[in-house]
Amino acid sequence: MIMKTRNVEYAIIGAGTSGLGAYATISRETDSLVMIQDGPYGTTCARVGCMPSKLLITAADYAHHLHTSDCFGVPASGQVDGRRVLERLRRERDHRFVARNLGYVDKIPAHHKLEGRARFIGPGRLMVGESVEVRAEKIILACGSRPAIGAVFEPVMSRVLTSDTIFELEDLPRSVAVIGMGVIALELGQALHRLGVKTTLYGRSGRINALTHPTMQRRALDLLAGELDIHPSGRVLSTWEDAEGAWIEYESSNGQRITRVFERVLVATGRESNLDRLGLEQAGVDVSESGAVRFDPQTMRCGDLPLFIAGDATDDLPVWHEAYDEGRIAAGNALSYPDSTPAVRRTPLMVFFTDPQIAVIGQSFRQLQGREIVIGELPFTSPRHVVWNKVQGHIQVYLDAHTGTILGAELLGHQAEHLAHLLALAITHGMTAEQVLAMPVYHPSAEELLRDVLIDAQKKRRRHEAEKESLSLSP
Ligand SMILES: Cc1cc2nc3c(=O)[nH]c(=O)nc-3n(C[C@H](O)[C@H](O)[C@H](O)COP(=O)(O)OP(=O)(O)OC[C@H]3O[C@@H](n4cnc5c(N)ncnc54)[C@H](O)[C@@H]3O)c2cc1C
Ligand SMILES: NC(=O)c1ccc[n+]([C@@H]2O[C@H](COP(=O)([O-])OP(=O)(O)OC[C@H]3O[C@@H](n4cnc5c(N)ncnc54)[C@H](O)[C@@H]3O)[C@@H](O)[C@H]2O)c1
């Protein structure tokens, strides 16, 4: 029974990072808007995503030092107190990151907020919960995503963890099977291992997908498998539970069957968009068989409709800075509807906070197939890395063979995030290797590695040019 109808110009579904980005833009221009939020405020990033995961990883880094500082003449002793690790994680998360977000939401006028799950009951018509209808001229779908859990895990659901639940544990489990080899599986799996949890990772494809050059993929897998118990390719055949725990029966791609029991199972097999719960067909939206909605990534508009999409709801670029940008792009184009202004999207940047870190910037090796490029590459080592005793990894930088413009890079190494940001800056400004090499580089710093890899790329480019010239001169 509809008890109340609200008429607004703009409705935003979801008060996560992208929804708040949209809200910030629209609320500057009009009072006729409502942001609808199902579940707790605070955003996925702060509550169950970026921030708690990085807090766990940092605790794990400290635990790792206990085993690695001896070579510096600093033997360390001590043990992990799982309860304290998790208590601190929640304290920091709640008091710093979530509280900051809630403080922002608190300041939003009450008539701009509506709590409940929204679903379409017609074009421009949303039902929120069971009693409020919202009629909006323009609607932004900023409803995010949720962990995907395959049916094979149903028999062990009481022991299944996802990134939504793991940070609420009272104590660390004794053992955990991590399903997946994506960013969540690797970040959390390595952290749990370093915190003393007996951890086994079960992958499917045998690849770490973010890296696309075969050398980078192989090295990343070799390095991580050197520390972690990983079965990279195969599939989980079945699961069951008994008094001992959750059993996982897994078949490796070589046909070997492995059956083991764990206290917990962390399912990190990707996320699925919450769009499927919106009843989009009622809004006249063309939804593909996979549940995806077609949209223009430069305007975030869905076809010609007064509907816009932003953030993880899209499956595309599911990272924080893109979610925020997309919220603002969607809002800007909702404000100017039916006119639209295509946004210039940022240079792609992805960082895995593993150790060593993995980063992909600009165009990946795979995306550059068919283009004439040279690859500068080196082990991830500079004098500074030697000082840190962190010399594992590899760096590849892709240059346009003709112009020397930096097009992309794939990195695997200690603190790769910082070189990744420098490379992102260079790519954003269309810089050539030569231009980047004109900047000062302090000694000894990790940035010396960037200088050296660009010198390597330049040498290869000169060789490439010389070879082409001699080919063109040969009769
Ligand atoms: C474990 C983990 C670690 C991560 N680490 C990083 C990282 O280090 N760096 C990084 O850049 N990114 C990271 N991310 C990704 C980042 O958190 C997301 O890209 C970002 O939070 C997406 O924001 P969003 O607004 O699209 O979704 P959300 O913040 O999830 O917001 C969507 C909101 O919509 C609500 N909603 C859904 N359906 C409805 C409905 N029908 N009606 C009303 N409300 C609805 C949801 O409850 C939710 O609150 C991580 C993600 C995870 C899960
Ligand atoms: N550092 C970061 O920026 C960061 C950290 C965490 C999460 N995130 C975001 O969260 C999103 C979701 O992360 P994710 O790791 O869940 O997804 P993902 O898509 O990165 O990885 C999912 C992995 O699970 C594997 N998989 C799928 N089904 C499987 C099965 N049945 N058995 C075994 N393996 C299976 C896939 O092959 C893939 O390797 C990411 O796309 C990312 O953008 C970002």
TrEMBL record:
This is Dihydrolipoyl dehydrogenase. It holds the Pfam family Pyr_redox_2. Residues 351-450 form the Pyridine nucleotide-disulphide oxidoreductase dimerisation domain. Disulfide bonds join 45-50. FAD binds at residues 54, 312. Its cofactor is FAD. Gene3D superfamilies: 3.30.390.30, FAD/NAD(P)-binding domain, Fe,Mn superoxide dismutase (SOD) domain. It comes from Bisbaumannia pacifica. InterPro entries: FAD/NAD-bd_sf, FAD/NAD-binding_dom, FAD/NAD-linked_Rdtase_dimer_sf, Mn/Fe_SOD_N_sf, Pyr_nuc-diS_OxRdtase, Pyr_nucl-diS_OxRdtase_dimer. The active site is at residue 443. One of its GO terms (molecular function) is NAD(P)H dehydrogenase (quinone) activity. Residues 10-327 form the FAD/NAD(P)-binding domain.
